[in-house]
Amino acid sequence: MENFAYHNPTRLYFGRQAIDELPGELEKYGQTILLVTGGGSVKRMGLYDTVMKLLHRGGKTVIELPGISSNPKYTHVLEGQRLCREHHVDLILAVGGGSCIDAAKGIAAATMMDGDVWEYFLSRASVERALPVATILTIPATGSEMNGNAVISRWDTKEKVAVYGNALYPAFSILDPVYSFSVPASHTVYGAIDIIIHALEHYFVPPTETPLLDYLTEGLVRTAVDSVRRVLRDPCDYDARANLMFAATVANGPGIGLGKQADWASHRIEHELSALYDVPHGAGLAVVYPNWMTYAAEKDPSRFAHFARAAWDVPAELEDDMAAAKAGIAQMRAFFTEIGAPATLEQLGVPADQIPHMARQAVRFGALGSYCKLDAAAVEQILNMCR
To answer: Which of 157, 179, 201 is the last residue of a domain?
Structure first.
């Protein structure tokens, strides 16, 4: 285990009617709130009316930024920056899924920046100053409700970049699993895939002795697999929704990767797919990740064999590590297909002739990964495996 420092400043309210905690939290902030929402689902489920009632009851002035879409766009960040500066916003409240939360974080950072915001994002420098952000989560997936990360896409340049910094941790987050009951099945599926792969980005790493976190990851994957199956059978299964929602928070929170060098190669490769073709992030990961696993297992199958036995019940009697690794990867592929995820670039609508360009873009900041380093040729090989 490597050295680490751990501090998570986000206050998390979890469970039925957790929204009751909102008025008390709002008292800690100033008059003006920027409300960031998505495409209308929060209105259909009645959450928007509930939040607006509580905001107005608390005497808050509400400025609205609706219409945040999957793969939140830089144009929304700039519009939010303008609104925050024009109206002297005191708190940004994101109500929705990870895209809304990431947009809110991008806005919070941009509002406090001088100069070219996108150039700062591309520099990958830590964000040290930002407006406070709070979240009310409806779609479990990214874990953005309890971490200091965000991912923003710029459509005109076909770029997608991760932004991070301690200033981007939400001040508080409200998670009521009931709000996820009406989430479309595809959002649930892609969210579950994101949850699983977030956890595994901290699992397939250079050798380090962290058995506590390994057991946590293996249990988290099993929980996500079981919970999404239950939710697809019964969208109003509260316990399954609750377990899936908390799994998302843990899978990409700072705790699961303590003392490790996370990999993130697959995420960086997928970012090129969604930057160019705006595919849902979880759908892109469903295509990329099993093929990254296959590639990486050829370098060292032992870790993949262990995972196959621990998380997918591949029999211990299958003693050959490569055979066990392949069996586990096959089970993951089968599970993704079972729940309705795509398996190829063709199914995503991504043409094969773009593979060399995406490979070059993926490594423009340097080689990818920690488990095994990937240059452009390796990324191109993995993407060709995705065809």
So the answer is: 179
